[in-house]
Amino acid sequence: MLPFTVERIDHVVFRVRDLAASVAFYERVLGCHLVRERPDLGLMHLRAGASMVDLVSIDGPLGRVGGEGPKAEGCNVDHLCLRVEPFDEQRIVAHLAEHGVVPRGPASTNFGAEGEGLSLYLCDPDGNVIELKGRAHRAA
Fold first, then answer.
1. Domain holding 37: CATH number?
2. What is the Cα Rg of the chain in Å?
3. Residue 37 belongs to what domain range?
4. Paired residues of 6 in beta bridges
5. Disulfide engineering: 22 pairs with which of 16, 29, 73, 76, CB 3.0-4.6 Å?
6. Domain count within the chain
7. How far apart are CA 53 and CA 13, in angstroms?
8. Average of pLDDT values for 102-114?
9. CA torsion, points 102, 74, 53, 16, in degrees to nearest 10?
10. H or E element: which one contains 62?
11. CA 116 to CA 108: how far, in whole Å?
């Protein structure tokens, strides 16, 4: 039996070529609202209903990690975040280990749709990064 239940997608992170143009698109075309800016990382957090869309500049500190910008050979999505309940790091890590999966590191505090909370990162069989995120410590 799983030690948690997936509640919803917390946020999706897109790597973009032109951060300002992408923020404008998500705000003006899709009705998202900019809620936090992280220029030190080249990262913008936009509220999309109950969830978040994060935009990462491909030439910023976070975006460079993904290599070249999106095209036929390059990835555009940085990771998928799933909100889980409960977030019991020991039980989740034990469950992952039973399936031969090792988290990329210990739980860390990250910002998401509900605010800042603990999360673990892992990779699927194709190397896609999945974040399992727990309840926020404080509201966004």
1. 3.10.180.10
2. 15
3. 5-136
4. 84
5. 16
6. 1
7. 6
8. 94
9. 140
10. helix 61-65
11. 10
